[in-house]
Design a protein that fits this description.
heterotrimer, A mainly alpha (about 400), B mainly alpha (about 425), C alpha/beta (about 500), A: about 400 residues, mainly alpha, ABC transporter involved in vitamin B12 uptake, BtuC, 2 domains, two-stranded antiparallel sheet, 17 helices, about 70% helix, globular, disordered N terminus, B: about 425 residues, 3-stranded mixed sheet, 18 helices, about 65% helix
Amino acid sequence: MPDGPAPPGKADRDSAAEPTPPPSAPSGVPAEAQGAGRFAAYLPSIKVTAASILLALVIGALLIVVSDRRVVESFGYFFSYPWDALRNSGAAIAESYTALVTGSVGSWSAITATLERAAPLICGGLAVALAFRCGLFNIGAQGQLVIGAICAAYVGFHYDLPPVVHVIAALLAGLAGGAVWGGIVGLLKARTGAHEVITTIMLNYIALSILTWLLTKEAFQQPGSNNPRSEKVADTATFPELFGVHSGIVLAVAAALGVWWLLERSTVGFEMRAVGANPDASRTAGMSVANVYTIAMVVAGLLAGLAGTQQVLGHEDSLTANFGGTIGFDAITVALLGRATPLGTVLAGLLFGALSVGGTAMQASAATPLALTQVLQALIVLFVAAPALVRGVFRMRSARDGGTVLASGWNS
Amino acid sequence: MELVSTATTVAEPVVRDPEDAKRRTKVGLLLLLVSGLLFYFWTSIDNAEVSYLLGDRTAGAEPGTLPARPVTLGCAVVVLVIALAVASGVLRRGVGNVLAMIVAGFAFILGFIVWAYSDQEAAFQAVITNPLPGTFAIATPLILGALAGCLCERAGVINVAIEGQFLAGAFFASVVASLTYSAGAGLLGGIAAGVGIAAMLALFAIRYLVNQVVLGVVLVVFASGLTAFLLDQVPDDPAVKQYLNDPPTLNDIAIPVLSDIPVIGEAMFNQTILVYLMYASVAVVTFIMFETRWGLRVRAVGEHPKAADTVGINVKRTRWQAVLFGGVFAGLGGAYFTIGSTGSFDKGASSGNGFIALAAVIMGRWHPIWATLAALFFGFVSSLQDQLKLVSKIPSELLTMTPYIATVVAVAGFVGRVRPPAADGEPYVPS
Amino acid sequence: MQLEINGLTKRFGSFTANDRIDLTVATGEIHCLLGENGAGKSTLMNMLYGLLRPDEGEVLLDGEPVTFHSPGDAIAAGIGMVHQHFMLVPVFTVAENVMLGREQTRGLGVLDRAQAASLVKELSEKYKLAVDPDAVVEDLPVGVQQRVEIIKALANDARILILDEPTAVLTPQEIDELMAIMSSLRDSGTSIVFITHKLREVKAIGDKISVVRRGKVVATTEPTASEAELAELMVGRSVKLTVDKGAVEQGPVVLDVQHLTVIDHRGATVVKDVSFDVHAGEIVAIAGVQGNGQTELIKSLLGLIRPAAGDILLDGRSISRYATRESLDAGIGYIPEDRSHDGYVGPFSVRENLVLDRYQDEEFSHGIGLKLGAISAHAKELVAEFDIRTQSIDSPVSALSGGNQQKVVVARELSRPLKVLIASQPTRGVDVGSIEFIHQRIVAERDRGTAVVIVSTELDEVFGLADRIAVMYAGRIVDIVSPTIHRNDIGCLMAGVDPETQRQETTNA
């Protein structure tokens, strides 16, 4: 074997001349220069999001047209009076979408309603997003928020405490309830490997059963009533109002900031993101994947618990069998649209909050069913997730995507 | 050759696996706990007899009786023996172990039921009835949904959208059956809707590479929104409604001879065509998946798409086929919720059963037969809790959650980590 | 069949992976394609196999131009390929894998497994491949899996067989067997394209050698060319084929492994009663064919698997019950064998990956908050010191080349004070420049007095680095020898054969 007596330094310089393979971009761009272009980097995905919303609205308009009896009738004589059909279609679409917009942001009271609706969606969305970043698919926000709300409401109506202390105690109880319910999922996953998709689905049902059971108990029911409705939460335990909005939205924004700090600036968040992206490498680097899963689910449950607490201490004043609606489920779409980032989740929560509130107004004034907003919601998320489709429809030039942050596969 | 040192030892070291010991302790303790509970049941029972009726409910047969205390005691002893066998290591992994677990499970259920039905205070003495008819009724859509899940996921496409397929199938089965006044045509409507959602799943998962878990959730929201929206368009006017959402339902067809088998005959062979289709589907899907060329290719595409590609298999086309084929079964499963049982469609008619079907797929380790057993297990526990609501020992609201708790326990305690098809959820991008 | 490639070009964006490649392989010829990792050999073969579409140029078979739209077309034209990463479905049986894509059926699409099995048996006997058609592939040793790949190609009547880096996973004995198979295939008229980066092999078996560098064929020569010439052609400069390593004074025993036994999750005993020790300032190489318990042995040293019996002493203290975190903190550095799986988090930036196991150190965090400034400064320092080629410290590691990814892992592990360094396959899939660099750093770490354990399946690496060689076979350390041992004897030990008996048998025969 011949000896190549090249000194170490030379070898280094030589390999410096080698081209970097395809995925790596040309080197030499200083790191600082990239910060300025950060907004530009987000631009394509902003464009796609806007286009997705537009596309969803177009499909929604089609549904409005085919479902409006007046329009359908006028299409019956389309060939004699085509203008009628078109005018009626236009009118139906305009009427519905105007109601949707004015109902959600057209007045101060509409805005407050939107914000109140958005607050639990944001918190629930954060619960899903945080788990996502850790590689866990949290379908269980619904159950976590139900348990959180039960705890918060119980503290709210059962104990007599001074004003500020009471609301804080009720809030903490709600957070703790959600955290425990989420923590069960994390523990089961960490200790036995039980798939979180199964356990969260089951725990949702279990939480709902517990709620309906408690609502038949005297300790929970309103005195002198047999209705499945809990006692009213004491005034001392309800959220204070700011400008006509209960302060839940402030808590939601604070929670988003907290989640951002946790994920991007803390050691625990570092572990969560690492485990979410590559559990094996994380384990090899000395992290306890089991503990990280558990912590992530505890925090996720806590956030969902906050959503439930907002419902019973702010939006309503007592527990009912379906006080939570489908918040926990909508939260999944919120997190998905927000690409599992805190800022994105806040924006998506506001959008879906507005859609939901506006949808109710639309149903009332334009007789377009509320379910339309659910369809819109699904379509928006679907299109945002398939940028290639949206670009194809709008003939946009292909750019590099921000890329979905979500892992693929069951094993994530 | 220069030997620096030699570390070769010939004797085979006998080392016991600490994991095995841990498992034995855990399972043993759990069984001991169960056995303790059964002993408690035994001591707490006063009344001596419990009535049961397993045969034909309509024939006015005389209920039989069980001595409550000896039965619970017997169950407790059986579980105790199995617990000791596991703890002492007599029972190892394998068929014997699985059988013992099943026996222990049934012993617990029997003891529990006898306890629950004993000492009834009400004047009307409830009778233990056969849980099997209920089991099959609940499990039928679950099994069909699970088959859809197995087909998709074996091909490498995660299907969280079974619930969406159920909803669409239920709605369109009802509409088509109402329009044509034919439950059979309704089945076709259900199938078409199931395949329609499947096509959306395939389009976005395979063509546009959307994250498949995300996609599934979104499709559920989409289907639930769309069906609710369309339902709101159906006027309340009964004259119109009967043409849109008032379908005929499927009739029970008794199969001669088979339906006369005691205990299981009524449950399994006096059912609607949908249930018989379900039996056939399980057999057909299993056969196709494991014995045919197409099945081999589907599994190859789900395990190692690149390997399939390198032998000339069109990965995307195969995945499309599997997803669409799965849609057939999910659509049938959806039809169960309208024309297979109650008739007209209500919002959220499938009430989350699609997710239970998904859980059955995972519990059944992506195998059609095991997924079917998982669905039957869920159906059995649900059916038991339905009849236990008749006796007041446990609040019925709490009983509602037993199937879900049972699923969690089964998944956490006995299924544990499962290995999905290796490329499940990963879009194939040829490079 | 004769294969001719004219001006074949493939671009990925602005990067030209293959630049006007010309190549001719005659009927019944073993044509070696020699080149570094990332030189463009695999791109070329993927085009030839229909997995990639060329941007320019043409492929001729027996003088006829052909275009392949899919591997199916290539297979139909008589091209077979044994991929570097086996294209076998692990949960299928051998027969199922062989029949996949060209299934024997009994009509109506029902599989005829018996017929497939008999075909496997027939081919297996004809070419002396010894493969059981009913075995499940994931249970087979890699050497046998490779033979399954060959049977797959033969079952499709391949007349041009492409072997992509086939020897990387084989023992010296298995390599000899493979070469015998290749010769017998050649004699029966099959043309073979043999892709490798190992000089010894091309000289042993090649009829013609084409050297690929940076996407171009830089030379086509005869196997009589010297190894130094070939190496220089391959890398583009003169290369050092050995590692510079001075003698060093051995310190006391740092790592002492005593009667270690590991049982895996399937209940199989994968490490059996293993004992060895490593002194300060010494490199012990664990040689062996992949899958003989090395991975599990190393994982148990790190607390990733709990050993079922035995003890691990670090400076005399038992660490066998330590969690991974504690083992790392006690001074064990680890370069894992599969860096993308265990070594780094792909979407994480270079900056973050460089503190992947150190983010909790006081240097990088206070309480639960991260010190971003310190982490960045640390990254800049290491990027400069280890010459990591990256756009910035914020680029995701997944965007770097294999060599630079490995440097990130190496830099991270060597950036803290170590007592023991464990490096598994430290240079797998890495370019020659990075290999030299990483080897120098490992030797430097030894010279600093660290006890070093290298796990390698590459004998060149084992002989280049080791002060002592422990050979593992079937979960046992069968012998610990000095690097002066003959290559063939190591080969015997790796195959579980006593070199003495082997020698006696050869003389008797």
